[in-house]
């Protein structure tokens, strides 16, 4: 096993999918980023990973991770029940996760209870704090500021070494 190394984290503009606003983080060790065909395939399966509306502002953040092998992973973290983070994931090109082949653009949903690997976890703390700051801490007569939440992203850089 090679020695551990942080990966590159990039932030992409939010998109709307199935009535939800999606904040997007990409993780890869490749400075060129994630191939467009892998991105297209990941975002095509995204509607399957989103929860039904429940009255919570419809916001999700995703981490699309291109592994060092054939694997690609899409983690969707959606806000539900006001203050709860709902998780669903999909993977491609990873036989350990029951992917049918080695194609990094052939995503299938996963049912494992895993919420992310060490390179995929850094956005979670930032997103928790941003949700509290822009949505939960704003009480009557103020209204939740979902637009401010959508523009408040973890800074680009590496997945670690942020202290």
Structure summary:
With 163 residues, this protein is an alpha+beta fold. The protein contains three helices and seven strands, in the order E-E-H-E-E-E-E-H-H-E.
Describe the structure.
This protein has 163 residues and is α+β, with helices and mostly antiparallel strands. Helices cover 19% and strands 31% of the residues. The protein has a 7-stranded mixed beta sheet. The model has no long low-confidence stretch (mean pLDDT 94).
List keywords for this structure.
163 residues, alpha+beta, 7 strands, 31% strand
Task: Record the SSE blueprint.
Elements: E1 8-17, E2 20-28, H1 36-45, E3 59-66, E4 72-80, E5 84-92, E6 108-110, H2 122-136, H3 146-151, E7 157-158
Parallel strand pairs: 2-3
Antiparallel strand pairs: 1-2, 1-7, 3-4, 4-5, 5-6
What is the CA-based Rg, rounded?
16 Å
Determine the number of helices (DSSP H or I, runs of at least 4 residues).
Answer: 3
Strand content: 25-35%
Give the integer mean of the pLDDT values: 94
Order of helices and strands: EEHEEEEHHE
**Could you give a short account of the major beta sheet?**
7 strands, mixed
Specify the helix fraction band: 10-25%
Low-confidence stretches: none
State the shape. Answer: globular
Multimerization status: single chain
- The SS-based structural class is alpha+beta
């Amino acid at each position: 096993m090679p020695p551990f190394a942080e990966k590159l984290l990039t932030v992409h503009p939010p998109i709307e999918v199935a009535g939800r606003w999606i904040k997007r983080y990409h993780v890869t060790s490749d400075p060129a980023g994630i191939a467009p065909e892998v991105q297209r395939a990941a975002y095509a399966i995204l509607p399957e990973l989103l929860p039904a509306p429940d009255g919570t502002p419809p916001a999700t953040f995703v981490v699309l991770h291109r592994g060092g092998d054939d694997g690609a992973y899409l983690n969707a973290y959606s806000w539900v029940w006001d203050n709860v983070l709902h998780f669903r994931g999909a993977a491609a090109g990873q036989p350990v996760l029951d992917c049918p082949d080695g194609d990094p653009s052939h995503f299938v949903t996963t049912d494992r209870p895993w919420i992310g690997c060490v390179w995929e976890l850094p956005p979670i703390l930032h997103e928790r704090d941003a949700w509290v700051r822009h949505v939960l801490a704003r009480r009557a007569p103020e209204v939740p500021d979902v637009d401010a939440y959508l523009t408040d992203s973890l800074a680009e850089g590496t997945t670690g070494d942020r202290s």
